[in-house]
Amino acid sequence: MADSGTIYTWEGLNKNGARIKGETPADNEATARAELRKNGINVIKIRKKPKSLLSGGKKKVVPADIAYFLRQMTTMLESGVPLVQAFEIVGRGNEKPAMRDLVLKLKADVEGGETFAQALSKHPRHFDDLVTNLVEAGEQAGTLETLLDKVATYKEKTEALKGKIKKALFYPAAVVVVAIVVTAILLIYVVPQFEALFTGFGADLPVFTRMVVDLSEFTQSWWWAILGVMVAIGFVFVQARRRLPRFARFLDIMVLKAPAFGPILRKAAIARFARTLSTMFSAGVPLVDALTSVSGATGNAVYREATLRMRDETEAGGQLQWSMRNTAVFPNMVVQMVAIGEESGSLDSMLSKVADFYEEEVDNAVDSLSSLLEPLIMVVLGVLVGGLVIAMYLPIFQMGQVI
Asked: Which stretches make up the Type II secretion system protein GspF domain (predicted)?
């Protein structure tokens, strides 16, 4: 398998004698020449493409890359392009080396006799069981293009929803970081300048100013310890969430109760539930099996456990609408839509409408939250920075009054 990190640029003549040029990944120059000859190209010159200092190496494959890849494959197959050739076109045309490497590995596996689903299953980090199972169902039913289109749509909608959630969380997080950095700069560099000035006056400092000066001295002496504690807390938090299910469950419960953010995350979980179940049910996956996969896609322990309880009740012969009502975590509107879908035989369509509705709700809620947080954040920053400035000027004000 070619190392997609090494790219060769070449010029040559095609079968018609026309001069063409392009790029191709290969282990070495000899392999690149052999690959080009196999494609009917007579190489005139070839050289290794220099790596950009800003390219950042291979870069890792992100979920957005997978969603785009699935959409490209859908377009290729719907256009009548054979599967192996579709891999070749999509892989060679991808600008991200890591993604190109992944696609060409899939191509090699399929050329070796494996099915599309089997090739995908070798990369569980990028293609989860839901995607693999749907692709397998499409191959077995002879409707790969249709199922792949559903998978691509599902991944696109899921990534769009994740983007909205990240947008909601990024703004306040960024402001907190900026506030910490600004405060640290003031305490380490600015306050000491005023402290030297105040020392020359020989007068007693106001209590508020003295507190800020003491905090500045502590920060200058122990900044490394403060930074270490912050890093340690972050590391322990991440590891505890990853390794301790009870702690992760507690966090999932608390974030749903959090003001402002809780309703957004709750709507996002419902949207993921509805979108995933709609996709799997429309693909012909049995409801009980679909609920098993859906439980892991909700992104929250509360909804994951609720979905598993729904699966057990449905497996025992209960209707989906009643099992949803028993969990008490789904709004009445969602339960009613599912009830209508069950009675009319259009459950997948109703769930898709629910997903569309809650995805739009998340979008609107994120925009509203951003508008709400802007003045609040300005107030917090104003109080923080303004408080430090006032503390530094209090002695000067007092001296002015004495004079």
From this structure: 69-192, 273-395
Q: What is the pLDDT of residues 48-72, one digit of tens each?
A: 776 554 444 457 888 888 888 988 8
CA–CA separation, 168 and 262 (whole Å): 11
Q: How far apart are CA 306 and CA 312, in angstroms?
A: 10
Give the SS3 label for residue 83.
helix
pTM, two decimal places: 0.70
Closest C-alpha among 289, 297, 265 to residue 151: 297
* Selection from 75, 69, 91, 99 nearest residue 149 by Cα: 75
Cα separation, 142 vs 145, whole angstroms? 9
Q: Is the dihedral of CA 369, 373, 375, 376 positive or negative?
A: positive
Quote the CA–CA distance of 190 and 53 in Å, as a whole number.
37
Region of 393 please: left (phi>0), alpha (psi -120 to 50) or beta: alpha
Give the residue among 244, 247, 289, 63 at the shortest CA–CA distance from 166: 63
Question: Is there a contact between 41 and 35 (Cβ–Cβ < 8 Å)?
Answer: no
Predicted local distance difference test score (pLDDT) of residue 202: 63
Q: Which residues contact 86 (CB under 8 A, 6 or more apart)?
A: 73, 76, 77
Closest CA to 397 of 196, 198, 215: 198
Q: Which two tokens stand for residue 308?
A: 């598993």
Q: What does the pLDDT read at residue 56?
A: 45
State the DSSP H helix or E strand holding residue 258, giving kind and residue range, or none if neither: none
Which tokens is 76 given? Answer: 């290729």
3-class SS letters over 31-70: HHHHHHHHCCCEEEEEEECCCCCCCCCCCCCCHHHHHHHH
